[in-house]
Design goal:
There is one protein chain. By secondary structure, the protein is an alpha+beta fold. It is 47% helix and 19% strand. It folds into 2 domains: 112 residues, Immunoglobulin-like (Sandwich), CATH 2.60.40; 107 residues, no CATH class. The chain has a 5-stranded antiparallel beta sheet, covered by helices on one side. A two-stranded antiparallel ribbon has the order 6-9. Strand 7 and strand 8 form a beta hairpin.
């Protein structure tokens, strides 16, 4: 055990000397150096000049910085050994609360408590943020990065979907004239034998003019066959077949040309072939 420093030993010595006929011969701590919260034994050896009944009160003194766990007394002839088991919760040198031992009062005993923080830094540290679990910083950075790029990803996805929607809409719009004329072709083929030829050609001519107006971007519904023939966009390729079908229809509707189901079928086949060829261009 570490012996008590002389100034401390002297203070306790004079304490007992003034209170009764007793002298402190030794004072030691075990362990010699202890820290906040450690369980420590304090042994005080007292030499009595006169016999006396030394005993401690069942009620131990209390303190907010010290917890006295146990006090025991051993008397051998003119010597008394006092053993105090305690835990200190305040760093630095503190004064042990007075302990009544009957004819003696144990007072002014210094408790030098060491602190592991005293060597870590020389002053008060600033407040730190709450510690996080290992890996939390990486997860937090990943979440923040995802939140940062999400608007850009959403905007890019929106642009792609908008572009696809535009292409689908344009394709649908472009296919509408073709679907209408194909639907009309099926209807006229089914009614070749039941419809009068002028009426049959009237519906065929109107359907073809609607198709040309949609595909060419020009008004062909109110134009005559001769006016359509003068349009530059109608010259050459399958467009000549369109003009032949329109001319054939004019002859039947206005000139009274006689025709039959076989002639109507050839006009319809010529129209369908010209449309398919034009759609491939």
């Amino acid at each position: 055990m570490r012996p008590l420093p002389w100034p401390l030993l002297a203070s306790v010595f004079f304490l007992f000397l003034n209170k009764a006929n007793a002298q402190v011969r030794d004072l030691s701590f075990y362990p010699p150096q202890f820290f906040v919260g450690d369980v420590v034994e304090l042994r005080i050896d007292i030499e009595l000049e006169n016999p006396m009944n030394v005993e401690f009160s069942p009620v131990l003194p209390g303190s907010d910085w010290l917890e006295i766990r146990d006090v025991s007394i051993e008397t051998v002839e003119d010597r008394v050994s006092i053993l105090i088991v305690f835990s200190s919760y305040a760093p630095g040198t503190q004064i042990l609360p007075p302990i009544n031992l009957g004819p003696l009062i144990l007072d002014d005993v210094e408790i030098p408590t060491s602190s592991t923080l005293s060597k870590a830094h020389g002053g008060i540290r600033l407040l730190r943020g709450q510690k996080v679990m290992p890996g939390t910083r990486l997860e937090l950075a990943s979440v923040l990065a995802l939140l940062t790029i999400t608007p850009f990803l959403a905007y890019g996805l929106f642009r792609i979907l908008r572009l696809l929607w535009g292409k689908c809409r344009d394709l649908f719009q472009n296919q509408r004239p073709l679907r209408r004329v194909q639907k009309l072709s099926k209807k006229l083929r089914a009614n070749i034998s039941s419809m009068r030829a002028p009426q049959w050609y009237h519906e065929l001519s109107n359907g073809l003019r609607d198709y040309l107006s949609s595909r060419l971007g020009q008004d062909c519904t109110s134009a005559t066959t001769a006016e359509i023939a003068l349009m530059k966009v109608v010259r050459g390729g399958p467009r000549k077949k369109f003009l032949e079908v329109l001319k054939e229809g004019d002859l039947v509707k206005f000139a009274g040309r006689q025709t039959n189901a076989e002639s109507l079928g050839r006009s319809l086949d010529m129209l369908n072939a010209a449309i398919l060829e034009w759609e491939r261009i």
